[in-house]
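C-alpha cells in:
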C-alpha cells in the first residue's frame, strides 16, 4: 500500500476507534463545556470519517492502490529514462553528420 492509502487507512481506523469509544460516553457526561467540547470533537471526527469513506468509495480502494503504485513506478522509471537519454545524446555526439543522412 502506498503512503497516502496507508495514511488514509490509519486515519480512518483512528476516527472509528474514537467514535466507537466516545459515542456511549458523551450522553453520560454532565452538561457543560467539557461535554460540548467532546460533542464537537465527535462531530468533527465523524465528519472526517465520512469524508474519508466517501473519497474511498469514489475511487475505490483497488483503483486508489493501483494509481499510487503506478505513480511509484514512474518515480523509479524517470531517473532511468533520463540516464538513457543522456547516454543516447552522448553517443549521438560521437557520430559524424554523414551517419545521420
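Residues out:
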Amino acid at each position: 500500500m502506498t503512503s497516502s492509502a496507508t495514511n488514509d487507512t490509519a486515519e480512518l481506523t483512528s476516527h472509528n476507534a474514537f467514535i466507537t469509544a466516545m459515542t456511549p460516553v458523551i450522553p453520560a457526561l454532565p452538561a457543560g463545556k467539557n461535554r460540548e467540547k467532546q460533542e464537537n470533537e465527535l462531530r468533527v471526527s465523524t465528519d472526517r470519517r465520512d469524508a474519508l469513506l466517501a473519497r474511498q468509495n469514489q475511487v475505490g480502494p483497488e483503483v486508489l492502490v493501483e494509481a499510487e503504485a503506478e505513480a511509484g513506478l514512474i518515480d523509479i522509471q524517470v531517473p532511468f529514462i533520463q540516464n538513457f537519454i543522456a547516454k543516447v545524446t552522448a553517443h549521438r555526439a560521437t557520430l559524424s553528420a554523414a551517419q545521420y543522412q
